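Lecture 7 notes: from sequence to structure.
We start with the chain below.
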Amino acid sequence: MATVQKLARMTNGVNVDDLMTTIDSIKATPAIAKFKFRVHNQWARGSQNSSTVGTFYGAGQELSRPRPFVLEADEPAILLGTDAAANPVEHLLHALAACLTTSMVYHAAARDIHIEEVESSLEGDIDLHGFLELNRNVRKGYQGIRVNFKIKANVPDEQLQAIVDLGSGHSPVFDSLSNGVPISVRVERL
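Predicted structure tokens for the same chain:
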């Protein structure tokens, strides 16, 4: 007797059946929702450094990727770098864009909202007076970030903002940036 194989329900490139299974698993065993992500950074010279992303903790276990990812960082020449890679604050904008997009797409898929295309552009303002300690009243980080989405979806125009709100309403990076997060820094000798 032939077995009938059930096709996965895919929306926006997301396996919605697996997404619902994950949600049900977390409801049944809340402890598996705890994750710890890690990077290991190594300075090369000047403004060049790289972070390696490999292992992480999730679903109650240590996990590793088939191959580690390397994220390079540098500064543009005008900021005394060699412009060999995006700078750290550009990486932050990338992290925000990627997390907003992923959160939006996943939550739209869970609601059976089909998205055909998503583009975003981000722009942030930094005043070097803060970084260089030339004015203690000027913040060292971004003073503001603007995100603009372009979305192609078969929904009325008035629902486009609701789709974007799925991203900002669920994005861990958006939450970390807009609400702050405690950071502890310690040192030890190499």
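Points to note: Residues 104 and 166 are 5 Å apart (CA to CA). The longest strand covers residues 61-73.
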